Amino acid sequence: MRLEYLPPYLPDLDPIEEGISAIKAWIRDNRDYTHMELDGHAGCDPYTMFWRAVYEMVTPEKAEGWFRDSRYL
Questions:
Q1: Higher pLDDT, 32 or 64
Q2: Whole-angstrom Cα distance, residue 70 to residue 54?
Q3: Cα–Cα distance measured from residue 73 to residue 65, given in angstroms and rounded to the nearest whole number
Q4: pTM of the entire structure?
Q5: DSSP H or E stretch at residue 71
Q6: Which end of the chain, N or C, is more open, meaning fewer C-beta atoms within 10 Å of its C-beta?
Q7: Nearest to residue 32, comparing CAs of 13, 49, 7?
Q8: How far, in Å, CA of 12 to CA of 4, rounded?
Q9: Helix (H) or strand (E) holding 22
Q10: Among residues 25, 7, 10, 22, which one has the least CA distance to residue 65?
Q11: CA 61 to CA 55: how far, in whole Å?
Q12: Do 34 and 49 meet the contact criterion of CB atoms below 8 Å apart?
């Protein structure tokens, strides 16, 4: 048995952090739409709003870039 030390955690190099940042930027950029969906008016669905942000911002190309930036690929 041998002891292996893990590298320190660096959130700047974590691909999920870049993905979450992109989703948050979409929500900020679409503030009016987001407020309407989160206010709970009839016909509004916050889950639809969230998944729209995910599908528009987290594309395979962007995810690959985030993994490359973090040196996982």
A1: 64
A2: 20
A3: 9
A4: 0.72
A5: none
A6: N
A7: 49
A8: 23
A9: helix 15-29
A10: 22
A11: 12
A12: yes
Rounded CA separation 52/55 (Å): 5
How does the average pLDDT of the chain come out, rounded? 84
pLDDT digits (tens, 9 = 90+) for 1-26: 888 776 677 777 788 889 999 999 99
- CA–CA separation, 69 and 19 (whole Å): 12
Please give the pLDDT value at position 7: 64
Residue type, 46: P
Tokens (6 digits) for 73: 């690929």
Scan for tokens 């987001």, then name that residue. Answer: 34
Record the tokens describing residue 38, joined without a space.
């989160």
Residue corresponding to tokens 């942000």: 53
H runs (alpha helix) in the chain = 15-29, 31-38, 46-57, 60-69
Type of residue at 50: F
Looking up tokens 């969906």 gives: 37
